[in-house]
Amino acid sequence: MNPNRPYVAYPQIKLNISNMVAPIDFEKDKVDLAVQFGGGNWPGVETELLFKDLIQPVCSPKLLKTTRLSELDELRKVQLLHSHYRRTDWPDWLMAVKRPDLLTDAGISFPSSVLTYQAAVEGVGVAVGQLFLLRNEIQGGTLVPLFNAPFERRMAHYVAWPKHRPLSRKARSFVHWLKAQIAESLAAGA
């Protein structure tokens, strides 16, 4: 049995997982906890930081076999892949490396980060990736970080719950487990 899976570590806790992009409305949605991306200061919500948003361009080794990408100017030769949900990733990263001139209207936009990253894995172009969330792809060699220039944004991933509803023992156990898994991944250099 693998204690890294919540249903093994806490079999008495029932999990229902949804991957909604919209901010959670605890008054309308019947959930105890949400993992939210943003500044962490939502009205009526308590939060705990899970991990910061560290971004960097990534691409497939397939693309690197046909296209040289060792200098920033070489980004002009490839498709920039954009996620609709994370539409400021490219502008933020290019501003951080002081090259906003490389941002164009060209490129391909996808409705989700998952599709954007899959297109990068397939060699379609270069995406800006969330390094923590792509650690398995990077460690497995299906994505390669480029330019050795990660950028930490002010936004992050938080676990959130309504202020007026204290966390139950089960919810607190899940938060503890979740944070321990993230800490373990960060400690392993992911």
From TrEMBL:
Residues 9-181 form the LysR substrate-binding domain. GO terms for biological process: DNA-templated transcription. SUPFAM superfamilies: Periplasmic binding protein-like II. CDD domains: PBP2_GcdR_TrpI_HvrB_AmpR_like. GO terms for molecular function: DNA-binding transcription factor activity; sequence-specific DNA binding. InterPro entries: LysR-type_TF_proteobact-type (IPR058163), LysR_subst-bd (IPR005119). It holds the Pfam family LysR_substrate. Belongs to the LysR transcriptional regulatory family. This is LysR substrate-binding domain-containing protein. It comes from Bradyrhizobium retamae. The lineage of its organism: Bacteria, Pseudomonadati, Pseudomonadota, Alphaproteobacteria, Hyphomicrobiales.
